[in-house]
Automatic annotation (TrEMBL):
Pfam families for this protein: Pyr_redox_2
GO molecular function list: electron-transferring-flavoprotein dehydrogenase activity; flavin adenine dinucleotide binding
Protein's name according to its UniProt entry: FAD/NAD(P)-binding domain-containing protein
Species of origin: Tothia fuscella
UniProt-listed PANTHER family: APOPTOSIS-INDUCING FACTOR 1 (PTHR43735), NUCLEOTIDE-DISULPHIDE OXIDOREDUCTASE AMID-LIKE, PUTATIVE (AFU_ORTHOLOGUE AFUA_1G17180)-RELATED (PTHR43735:SF24)
Length: 438
């Protein structure tokens, strides 16, 4: 380790966190950030490369899960075992592969408190062991506190895969499924259940008059989402709340009776709640500088509020940030790039004795969204709504965007990593056989 080597802590290893880490490594070497189809959508002004840092940082990634999870693909990954395995990539594998030649360390734990003045974070592991990490710069990329089926409740891959296996087995047996919540996840999940398990009648129940009502989207977009969902064969009940859910016995065995606010009852085999967002995952931060759902009220440089202790050394990116527009993985990745650019600028300025460096500004995000609804997708960009199978291929591709996501984040697919390990074991076994005959 170099003397006075800067230490950068990234809390949260999803889209924003890994984008931050990748960008820090690139910019600190003096290279420009990539643009094009394998990079996040570029910000309004491209990042210009400058000289690399003389003293390269070391990095620590802290996350409560043991791997990166492709949240965009959750409606598919939560119900399909083959995709579930593909969507969760071990951080140990990521560090050993993507960051093999970098000074990167992964810590598996959940942030519990933060001392901004001392620049020390406290975290707890799964067995309640308490640890501390000191740092020079920190980026909070912890996202929103959501529950299943938006994100897994499990913190390790094997437990998650067991849960998905159980869900898949249930959906194979069931005949009628009720999805509660008509946000983006509820819509995509209902359509995927109908596609992957066509034996089921699928009913989406939503409490408002329109789908995706919580997002700042045109009414035409919301209406088109309903139209495409109905095409999949999903039944939709709007302006209805679930008042009660109870187990009952029927001639067909144990089932579930769901009572709606309009008086209707639905007899089904499974109920899945998709409207489970619980606010930003920032409980470890002090109350000041956060909005009503816990999102961090950063400056336009993505630094903490100016009145916070050591504010210039603390950044935030992704869904945990209080910002305009719709919370999306593309926006999260762009925020990570801006955080990285500004941290490298500050480190370079310190090396050069520049007390007033110019930092990048994060622009307001315009309402943008892509939805995968059955075999079709729809998108809103620049105020224009597009939909169809070609939009699905362009916006998502296979596996709700897993291949494009891995390329953008410079991650190796799970299948390729497993193939490498198998080949290495075969070579090792072969070498052992040869040695035995010498």
């Amino acid at each position: 380790m170099a003397q006075n080597q800067p230490h950068i802590l990234i809390v949260g290893g999803a889209y924003a966190g890994l984008s931050t880490l990748n960008s820090l490594i690139t910019l600190s070497s003096g290279a420009a950030l990539p643009t094009g189809p394998v990079s996040p959508p570029p910000p309004p002004e491209p990042f210009v490369s400058a000289r690399g840092l003389r003293n390269k940082p070391r990095y620590t990634l802290l996350d409560e899960r043991d791997g990166f999870y492709h949240t965009v693909g959750a409606p598919l990954g939560q119900i399909t075992p083959s995709y579930a395995k593909e969507f969760w990539l071990s951080y140990d594998d990521i560090v050993a592969d993507t960051y093999a030649n970098e000074d990167v360390k992964f810590v598996h734990g959940s942030a519990s408190s933060l001392d901004l003045e001392k620049k020390i974070i406290e975290y707890k592991t799964a067995d309640s062991t308490v640890g501390h990490i000191s740092y020079d710069y920190m980026v909070v990329a912890t996202g929103m506190r959501r529950g299943a089926p938006i994100v897994p409740l499990e913190f390790d891959k094997q437990s998650f895969l067991s849960t998905v296996d159980k869900m898949s087995a249930e959906l194979t047996r069931t005949r009628k499924v009720v999805i509660v919540g008509g946000g983006a996840v509820g819509i995509e999940l209902a359509a995927k259940v109908k596609m992957e398990y066509p034996n089921n009648e699928v009913i989406l129940v939503h409490s408002r008059e329109t789908l995706i009502n919580a997002e700042p989207l045109p009414q035409e977009y919301k209406a088109k989402a309903l139209e495409l969902l109905l095409i999949t064969g999903t039944h939709v009940k709007l302006s209805q709340r679930v008042l009660k859910e109870e187990q009952i016995q029927t001639v067909d065995g144990a089932r579930i009776q769901v009572t709606l606010s309009g008086g209707e009852t639905i007899i089904c085999d499974k109920v899945i709640y998709s409207a489970v967002q619980k606010g930003a995952n920032t409980e470890f931060l002090a109350q000041g500088g956060r909005d009503e759902i816990g999102c961090i009220q950063v400056r336009d440089t993505l630094q903490f509020p100016a009145l916070a202790p050591n504010a210039d050394f603390h950044f935030a990116a992704g869904d945990a940030v209080s910002w305009s527009g719709v919370k999306r993985s593309g926006g999260a990745q762009n925020m990570g790039r801006i955080c990285a650019a500004n941290i490298v600028t500050l480190l370079r300025a310190a090396e050069d004795g520049n007390s007033n460096p110019e930092l990048e500004i994060c622009p307001p995000f315009q309402p943008t969204m892509s939805l995968a609804i059955g075999e079709q997708a729809m998108g809103l960009r620049g105020g224009e709504i597009r939909f169809g199978k070609e939009v699905m291929e362009r916006a998502f591709g296979r596996g709700l965007g897993i291949e494009g996501t891995l390329k953008k984040l410079r991650l190796t697919p799970v299948a390729e990593l497993e193939s490498r390990r198998t080949q290495e074991k075969s070579k090792g076994a072969g070498a052992g056989v040869v040695a035995a005959h010498i």
